[in-house]
Amino acid sequence: MERSFQGAPDELELSSLTALTPLDGRYEQKVKELRPIFSEYGLIRFRVLVEIKWLLKLSEIDEVMEVPNFSKDARSFLEGLVYNFSVEDAREVKKIEKVTNHDVKAVEYFLKQKLDKLLFPLFQVIEFFHFACTSEDINNLAHALMLKEGVNAVILPVMDELLQAIFKMAKENAHIAMLSHTHGQPASPTTLGKEMANFGSRLSRQRRIISEVEILGKFAGAVGNYNAHIAAYPEIDWPRIAEEFVRSLGISFNPYVTQIEPHDYIAELNHSVIRFNNVLLDFDRDIWSYVSLGYFKQVTKAGEIGSSTMPHKVNPIEFENSEGNLGFANQASDHLSMKLPISRMQRDLTDSTVLRNMGVGFGYSLLAYRNALQGIKKLQVNEARLNDDLEQTWEVLAEPIQTVMRRYGVPEPYEKLKELTRGKAVTKESIRKFIEGLEIPEDAKSILLKLTPQSYIGAAEGLAKAADS
Q1: Is residue 2's pLDDT more than 80?
Q2: Which residues form the Adenylosuccinate lyase PurB C-terminal domain (predicted)?
Q3: pLDDT tens for each residue of 192-221
Q4: Exposure pattern of 52-90 as b/e (b: 16+ CB <10 Å)?
Q5: pLDDT higher than 60, residue 301
Q6: pLDDT at position 191, please?
Q7: How many CB atoms lie within 10 A of CB 383?
Q8: What's the Cα-to-Cα distance from 204 to each of 26, 227, 251, 271, 459, rounded to whole Å?
């Protein structure tokens, strides 16, 4: 085989330097919490959990006399297979899979080997591993448990950390006036805190929607009708047993399925994450723009280099990295959302390989959240620059002036202010002169004369302070 360039080895040992994707390479330390959950090891571990829990459930069904109630020691042994499941155990399952060429059957055989040489009663029940199950009974619950743990234990806490950082910015800067830019042009002032509060509020809503997505599971056999269950034990209410079992895992039960749980909830979850990510992407771009305008300075770190040729530069790279990684996250999540709910007839296998990539979208999302958090920590408000921009744009007071003129019946107020301000240099003096010449009550005139671009912020300060209430 011809090498790609002179000196490159034909084979490389897998490491953070040789990993195919940056999630397992360059960014390994930033997403490592997801590896025990969404990796191949994680999938096998959750499959083992489901198989063990199902055997224990069978032991509790009076009609299934062939699986007796387990002693405390026997239950402890079985539960230990789950809680002590190691990477070496996963390697053993993979060795069995090389023979079976079937990943779920390999888990069943692995567990049978663990019980085969044990004393009564465990060795007598080995054929009740995977009883009446199709592979997807095990897989769909394993995937559900992966998503539940990944979202609740990793993703939501980092989302909350991000929200706390943004709401902190909102409150600390609630009073700091800032020129707005609609269509990229100067517009009515706001406050820096209010603009941060907008993002905090939007992200909070999407975070809540994510947390409310109902994670579903099925356990109904080869085509969703309990065919094999009823053939073996016709007297048992298998739909009730299946629901009890699925709910015992902390997962909601889906009674109407084919061979697979139809994955609609996974689409809902990923679409919800995409919406959260899109709001954060909007935040990243706005912060980038505010840095560009000089509204934020960035705290420098000793030894860091912004440009290899321009020594003065301190680039907003954290927000740029966040934006770029959100793109990868959303592409992966979108494919899961669009593909997984579609399966030919009672099932096809196209979902299997796609589901193995569940961790990709979450991995890039987690990376993006931490990029943004790191960027926020480096921001320093440049009040002088904010104030300077406001001082140069007295024309923004055209809005309140013409609005007050409307109240007091002054004809053509909009047109008069348009003539005064549009395409012309507007100063504090020209605005004051215009106000003094208005035929409106003196108290209204006094209020307008006290207005400045810095004070014309409406309810922005209060809104910013109340944003996380």
Answers
A1: no
A2: 343-457
A3: 999 999 999 999 999 999 999 999 999 999
A4: bbbbbbbbeeeebeebeebeeebeebbeebeeebeeebb
A5: yes
A6: 95
A7: 14
A8: 30, 45, 24, 16, 21
pTM of the model: 0.90
Q: How many CB atoms lie within 10 A of CB 443?
A: 7
CA distance 93 to 69: 27
CA distance 215 to 252: 6
Q: Residue 191: beta bridge partners?
A: 177
Residue 304 has pLDDT above 60, yes or no: no
Decide if 186 contacts 392 (C-beta within 8 A): no
Residue 125 has a pLDDT of: 86
d(CA 453, CA 106): 71
Q: Which residues are annotated as catalytic? A: 183, 307
Given this model, what pLDDT does residue 6 score? 57
> What's the confidence (pLDDT) of residue 373?
95
* HEC letters along the chain: CCCCCCCCCCCCCCCCCCCCCCCCCCCHHHHHHHHHHHCHHHHHHHHHHHHHHHHHHHHCCCCCCCCCCCCHHHHHHHHHHHHCCCHHHHHHHHHHHHHHCCHHHHHHHHHHHHHCCCCCCHHHHHHHCCCCCCHHHHHHHHHHHHHHHHHHHHHHHHHHHHHHHHHHHHHHCCCCEEEEEECCEEEEEEEHHHHHHHHHHHHHHHHHHHHHCCCEECCCCCCCCCHHHHHHCCCCCHHHHHHHHHHHCCCEECCCCCCCCCCHHHHHHHHHHHHHHHHHHHHHHHHHHHHHHCCEEECCCCCCCCCCCCCCCCCCHHHHHHHHHHHHHHHHHHHHHHHCCCCCCCCCCHHHHHHCCHHHHHHHHHHHHHHHHHHHHHEEECHHHHHHHHHCCHHHHHHHHHHHHHHCCCCCHHHHHHHHHCCCCCCHHHHHHHHHCCCCCHHHHHHHHHCCCCCCCCCHHHHHHCCCC
- Rounded Cα distance between 347 and 261, Å, is 10
How far the first Cα of the chain sits from its last, in Å, is 64
What integer pLDDT is reported at residue 228 of this predicted model? Answer: 94
> In angstroms, what CA-CA distances link 361 with 188, 274, 325, 354?
39, 9, 9, 12
Tens-digit pLDDT profile for residues 88-130? 999 999 999 999 999 999 999 999 988 876 655 566 788 899 9
The C-alpha atoms of residue 15 and residue 17 are separated, in whole angstroms, by 5
Q: Does 312 have pLDDT greater than 50? A: no
Q: How far apart are CA 156 and CA 4, in angstroms?
A: 42
